[in-house]
Design goal:
single chain, mainly alpha, Rna Polymerase Sigma Factor, Chain: A, 67% helix, 0% strand
Length: 189
Amino acid sequence: MGVTDPDLMIRLAAGDDLALNLLMDRWSGRVAAFLYKMTGQRDAAADLAQETFVRLYQARDRYRATGSFSTYLFAIASNLARNHARWKSRHPTVSMDATADNGTPVVFEIADGGAAPDEAAGSAEKFRAIHEAFLCLPPDLREAMSLFVYEGLGYAEIAVISQCSPKAVETRIYRARQILKERLKGFVS
């Protein structure tokens, strides 16, 4: 059996700074993807992901392996995403690169060489609609859905991260699904 995440945190607290590299190798992709879903901005997500691991390193002596490591890590990332959203709301900016001519957010499309042009266009349109609908969710609903759907966390773990009850998480996920269903009803096939 490989070294567990709590074992790596113990090693990190004991002064083995290379343990952080192993944790980053394991988790940086998932953390960055979660933060991208929360912010909708690749650069901000990358910066916040790095900051997540800085905070993890800073808290290495306070970590206790009483719960799931992923819950601990995503709580740090979630708090940073909330702080970022608060900061952005107080310091609004307009980036010329962030929007298309029609004012919609720019979404990077992934080329699929095997798809016919009309299929690729339909997939890109569907992806863009889902992405935009997801980003339009209120932050608490977006956070719950990201952690539930993409990270596979349970209600209790999400409740710890979101600092609410498991019932509140269940309600948030239900509300998010209803909003997404309504916004995407034109794409249901």
